[in-house]
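Figure S7 source data.
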Amino acid sequence: MNELVIATKNEGKVREFREMFSKYGIEVKSLLEFDEPIEDIEETGTTFTENATIKAEAISKQYNIPVLADDSGLEVDALEGAPGVYSARYAGLEKNDQKNLDKVLENMKDVPTDQRTARFVCAVAVARPDHDTFVKIGTCEGHIAEEPQGEHGFGYDPVFIPQGSQRTLAEYTSEEKNAISHRHNAIIQLEEWLKNA
Ligand SMILES: O=c1[nH]c(=O)c2ncn([C@@H]3O[C@H](COP(=O)(O)OP(=O)(O)OP(=O)(O)O)[C@@H](O)[C@H]3O)c2[nH]1
Ligand SMILES: [Mg+2]
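Tokens for the predicted CZF complex:
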């Protein structure tokens, strides 16, 4: 396989998939690079697994090709798992990373350091014509910073400090993030399939 379609319109995800799949010699094509505009796929599931499956199967069926999709988000223990599957839409449907992150910090303002534990979760689904869809899940444990730091990455990266680190993920280089991220931890479980695909 030398090209894989990823059913996403999130440029941050596309960049990371492109970086991580390059070592397998696989080029990534996202929904942003199709000749015709692709309608938004409604994420009606209540779990990362369901939503990743919905996105992968929608595009796989429409174009009759193998497709990978990623549904991911941030689970904060002190917020009972929120924003969770609603991470992209936490502060509203407009999908504003800054507003989402501000809302997490605001909701966490009275939470002491030792209770700020959180994790990123990523479900990757692979849908193919005439095959059952399969899903792999990766996580990345850490805690929520008191204030945003760093310019790299996307989404909640400026407020997420991976376990054992003093820096936020937005202060990591892309190579450093791609070595420990939830997305990386999901993709490494695809290695067998990638080698044979
Ligand atoms: O700081 C972050 N670093 C990450 O590595 C990361 N991965 C996911 N997220 C957050 O979770 C939402 C996913 O929602 P999501 O899976 O529905 O994606 P999306 O709507 O942005 O794009 P699409 O793939 O659905 O087209 C994203 O928007 C982000 O807010 C991340 N934040
Ligand atoms: Mg989405």
